[in-house]
Amino acid sequence: MTADTDPRAMTRRQLLRHTAWFGSAVALSVVGGEVISHIAGSPEPTPAASRPTLRFAQISDSHIGFNGAANPNVADTFAQAINQVNNLGYTPDFVIHTGDLTHLGTPEQFDHVKQMLTGLNTPHIFTVPGEHDATDDAGQKYRQVFGAGTRDDGWYSFDVGGVHVIGLVNTLHLQKLGHLGTDQLDFVQKDVAPLSSDTPIIVFSHIPMFAMYPDWGWGTDDAARALSYLRRFWSVTCLNGHVHQLFSKTDGNVTFYSGTTTAYPLPHPGDGPAPKPINLPAGKLKDALGIREVSYTKGQQALALKEQALQ
Amino acid sequence: MTSTVAKPTAGLPARVAVRAAISVLLAVSGVIHAYLYIDGGYRVIPTVGPGFLWQASIFCTLAVLILFGAPEWFSWAGAALSAGALIAFALSRTVGLFGFTERGWNPSPYAALSVLAEALTVVLVAAVVLWRRRSASVPTPG
After folding, report:
1. Contacts of A246 in chain B (CB under 8 A)
2. Which of B2, B101, B106 minimises the CB distance to A2?
3. Among A57, A87, A206, B138, which one is least packed by beta carbons within 10 Å?
4. Is the peptide bond before B107 cis (omega within 30 degrees of 0)?
């Protein structure tokens, strides 16, 4: 009992006792962490399993044709993003551009961005349209350039590396929020019906599939129905653009990741009356722009994301 | 027992009650984070997911050891880690935490319960420390 010892000094016996308690705490914490990890079904990757079975890059919101003070040369920063993807140290299985490829959706801007995308060192390039790509024609010019192999308004799905990928179009019939529409929702329902629940799902869209900031239109009004078809899957990852900034949110089995832009930053939700381009001090722009690497390793439930600022 | 959270002059029931309360509060926060890690989807969040895992295992460990008579500084550590968890929660609702941001009290009701448990841990441990200091400054009769 400590009552017999000097309270101002720690005896050797007390020191040993405290050390034993501390050691017990460390050991129990490690064991507890292992137990929780085991229950969660996410064991530490073995060296053999650590090599990703799927690796791809996301770029977004290049806004080719934009000419404002926030970025006087969006083509240059987009070219840098492409160069950065080409120097990842591996060839990504594909590259996804999550919309607003162009600023005004003119034929010249589509030609320009299409030409630039051919510089990507990857076997496949996928896109989804942003609202800037469909300003006056409900996406007709976009589909003429990027619509090959897609259905109806430009949505599609494919399987790669054990992952089921769905590209959705929520920018063609928007009022304030993004909108998928009945036909596309039916497509999602039928598309995932034959899949087993342990199939990882990746969803691409331009506008967030979650209510990031509805006052600025940063959400999709009928996303809940689409997500209801995906609830049974163990892992669903939704990647979007539109908001020009990194943001993530989890909702049960679904994780949402907003990507940044290669053009110009927008304010954080609610900062100011409207999402207008931010003019950053010289030298700071590249810090707000970037690309995203995504990898999936078979046997693991979660996808790994790595953000890279433009260099 | 090496030392206790409450001043040795406090009655045994009071000391046990304080220990039990701190233990329960830490366990509540730890179990909630473990649940959110296992079933809430948080384990896929870079950095934040492993953070939930470590928070859960450390808080549950502290809860068990404090209940079984760990030294007083275990309670201080629990309070400090609870304060850290509250700061991390606040960051995730404002400027972001390792790029992760959430809004409001989602996931409900777990976010609110966890914040409540952590805040009560900080308050309880602080109250015990203050009570001890005040008691120590009052001369005992005889």
Report:
1. 96, 99
2. B2
3. B138
4. yes
